[in-house]
Amino acid sequence: MSYLEIQDLRVRYGEQTVLDGVSIAVEPGERLCLLGPSGCGKTTTLQVVAGFVVPDAGHVRIGGRNVLGDPPERRNIGVMFQSYALFPHLSVADNVGFGLRMRRRPAEEIRRRVGEALDLVRLGHAGAKQTRMLSGGEQQRVAFARAIVIEPSLLLLDEPFSNLDARLRQEMRSELLGLLQKLRIATIMVTHDQEEAMAIADRVAVMRAGRIEQVGSPAEIYARPSSLFVARFVGESIVLAGKVAALGGDGGDVVDVPGAGRLTGEGIAPLSVGEQVQVLLRPQHLQLRPVEGAPAALPGWNRLTAEIEQVLFLGHRTECYLRLGEHRFIVWQNTPLAPSLQAGARALIEWQAQDTLLLRAER
Amino acid sequence: MPARRWPPAAWFLLAGIPLLLFFVLYGLPVLQLFRLSFDRFDPGQGIIPAFSADFYTKFLGDGYYLSILWRTVRISLGTTLIAAVIAYPVSFYLLASSGWRQTLLLIVLILPLVTSVIVVSYGWLILLGQTGLANRTLIDLGLTTRPLKLMYSETGILVALVQVQLVFMVLSVSTSLRGVDSNLIRAARSLGAGAWRAFWLVVFPLSLPGLRTGALLVFSLSMSAYGIPALIGGPRVKVLSYLIYEQSISLLNWPFAASMAVILLASTTGLLGLAGLWRRLRRRRVPPATPAPMGAAA
Question: Are A63 and A119 in contact (CB under 8 A)?
Answer without folding.
Answer: no
